[in-house]
């Protein structure tokens, strides 16, 4: 601390240190003065003048402390870049280094959220409180809040690397609200009767793809990226390593996580769908499933919904759900039948089964009347014999 807590202190026989806040950064600079009582008082007055200049916006670091290494970081040209200008530059640089789907997510957050709200702020003036106050006005889910902060935090990390700002104001901090109760229809699987009705309303490639989706749990983006070379007929497995999203513009990309790259066991209904599909596309091209109208690979779930999914729901008289519900249907069927949650998690591309338990917990069978009898039969019999032996010897 400085003299009497005033931000001024003697640091040697020939110099005095002044401490002050500038653009959110604690700055310490030395003045070459012998630390006498008179000079310490002068240093306090100099500090007060600096803080006044800062408050009215006239402080020039390089003029006040021309020999300071910190002055370059506060040069006027570096201080004039706005959040808008930086994020625009940052976004353009990111496009070359991230997956198309990731970049598309960044682009939407930057152009639709961050720039309209924070764009006019100077980068060096961006404070955590301003971000928090803005986030507090948004009527969005905690997941969206997390995505916004993750994008901005990543950009500000790069800004610190450029020495555009001293510290990332979002480092080690996350804003969230009390989570709202989950919607009851988040997981809304098709019943066996609904599955049969929808499959009966489809034919050819559309029916094969629907049946395969229901019995593998693949995401729509993984389904349309599947090639015949990914099918291991001997092991009866499908190798999932790519996904195709709308943002990819017709180009398949590696799945985002290591767990997403997996071998999926092909159960009998899935194999039957593949064998029927083999007669239609195996010799035509690389992709397993094609848009029947174009005889080309599906480009994402948008065309699937419009040309195949919605008409099938209407024809079958089944209440509408999005295509992703085939994945939920697979999970609920496997768990209801008593398949191990960890096996289901691996089939679906999750790194562990905690998400399975959280999302699909009500489909995991609860303990029945016979629960514990297997352990009892194995371990308790020996214990009973030992107790009987001890009693007989007494």
From TrEMBL:
GO terms for molecular function: DNA binding. Residues 185-375 form the Tyr recombinase domain. One of its GO terms (biological process) is DNA recombination. Pfam families: Arm-DNA-bind_2, Phage_int_SAM_3, Phage_integrase. InterPro entries: CB (IPR044068), DNA_brk_join_enz (IPR011010), Integrase-like_cat_sf (IPR013762), Integrase_catalytic (IPR002104), Integrase_recombinase_N (IPR010998), Integrase_SAM-like_N (IPR004107), Min27-like_integrase_DNA_bind (IPR022000), Phage_Integrase (IPR050808). Residues 81-160 form the Core-binding (CB) domain. The keyword DNA-binding applies. Keywords: DNA integration, DNA recombination, DNA-binding. PANTHER family: PROPHAGE INTEGRASE, PROPHAGE INTEGRASE INTS-RELATED. Belongs to the 'phage' integrase family. This is DUF3596 domain-containing protein. It comes from Pseudomonas karstica.
